[in-house]
Amino acid sequence: MLETICDILVDAYKRNWITSRDGNVSIRHHDRDHFYITPSGVRKQTLQPDQFKKIKINCGIVSGVFPTQFVHNWEEMPYTDISSALRPSGEIPLHFGLQKEMGQHKDDVRVVVHVHPTYCVAAMHAGIDLSTVVDSFPELSRYTKVAPNVGDVPPISQELADQCFEKLRLDKYGNIAYDIVGIKGHGVVAIDTSPWRAYEHIERLEHICKIVLASKKYE
Ligand SMILES: [Zn+2]
Hints:
This protein has 219 residues and is of the alpha+beta class. Helix 3 packs parallel to helix 6 (158-168) and helix 4 (118-125) crosses helix 7 (195-215). Helix content is 32%, strand content 20%. Strands 4-3-2-1-5-7-6 form a seven-stranded antiparallel sheet, sandwiched between helices. The protein starts with a helix and ends with a helix.
């Protein structure tokens, strides 16, 4: 699936959803204690599977606390020679938070895709909350659950990650109430069980945002 992630990032680049070095993706298989994430600052048109970073998820118990509380952290694992010279994506707080517990994907694969799709970002810039566009376009809500927007937050920050978790209604088991969330002035984050499935949430929302903006019927 790392090759498929490379494919979707090339596709996202061709659609102008990212510039060369933007965008990041992570993937975790339910039976593994690690996930893969795209490296920082690498051209997405030429990204290769052996450039990904392998990240171990450590889980410990907080001592002296009842009920039992778990604490997670991450560390890089050896993967390939080429990967060892690279750093993980700056958005790793976002990906780690969504991958450390897999919630409704606990028997499957979880893929987290972050890109900057033009019309989704334009719609948020125009003051539209992406969660409201489903009201007029039921074919969107049938397949994609859209969270309320995250406001202006700095990129590659814990604040961005925390705001995304809140709007996606991420719980301590890793359950997520929505498929996609928009970050104002920035981009979107989509989650599903394969790279293309996550990508389709973005594609669907982008298509509707383009229609809404073309109609000019919004406040
Ligand atoms: Zn971004």
